[in-house]
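step: validate -> pass
step: tokenize input -> pass
step: predict -> running
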Amino acid sequence: MREAIHKVEVMNIRSGIKSALLLLFCCSCALSACAADTINGTVRNRTTGKAAAGDEVILLRLQNGMEEESRTRTDAQGAFSLRLSAADASHIVRVLHQGVNYDQTVNENGPLEIAVYDAVPRIQNLQGSIGIAQVESDGQTLKVTEMYSITNDSVPPVTQAGPRNFEISIAPKATLDSLVVKKGGGVWVNLAPVPIKGQQGRYAVDFPIRPGDTLFKFVYHLPYYGPTMLRIKLPYPVRNFAVMHPPSMAFKPSSSQAFTSPGLAQGLRVEQAVSKPVVRGVPEFELSGIGLAAPAEAASASSQTSPAAAAPKPDAPALVMLPVAARRFENGMWILLSGIAAILTAIAYAVWRKRKRTA
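step: predict -> pass
step: emit ->
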């Protein structure tokens, strides 16, 4: 009798253990499903070194543009949790801190860590690391593409935010075609600059300049009837500036001491401004003739079929560092800027050595 009772008790214990394990498994599955349906992270203010409390956080789904999926606010420790309803779509988490957006792509590497910075109306001594004006003509219009990399190395790091963060200046008879902006390794954003009242040919760009490099590219054109004098006004002082044009076009600076010509870079002639930095405006120069920038594919084919033609000249050894892909600005501006910077650095070094030998 006792053995029968003992067996019944053992069976009941085993049944209870199985039920508990099944319940634990179901709870784990529920928790996993819940975790998969949320995005967690923290926001930290890199200006103060403290948690960013009370910032608005928005989850954006990258389908049909940007669609808001959920939003919340950070707690006292800067933490947040967002509800995810479309796990199979790509998402961006956007944090709004003092009126400036800070975006980060969602991945599967665990909780997000997003940095934000305090916003200020103006950063003293803000400069561009490099500027380029690419000029070409089909005989009827003169097309100018200006590109700038503005470097914000403020200490402590802050974001410059204001309605006139970047200003565009073009000739009165010119027509502005487009403007795109990119923060570092982010994505290009199309913007519509605002004309500045009472100043023909000047436009204001309301795009925050966050710590690091911000890239600006704008294109404009003007009627072309022959030799044309260009006056380029800079939005900020630029440490290195160069004009690039097809070799078939003649370049004539207003002063023979204003530019140096190191040679060709991927089919375009480089004219480097001697002043470092160039503060308010580039020395005037005249362009004449007809010439178009070759497509990246043509430049690539030319470099593959004629290695000798792509070799650098003795007075510009760094030209070979500019890769073929640099000709397509939209897909490789970082490469282009790095190559041009290498060219200008090599030129400065060569001039210094020449002066040293002369002395």
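step: describe -> The CA atoms of residues 318 and 346 lie 6 Å apart.
step: cleanup -> pass
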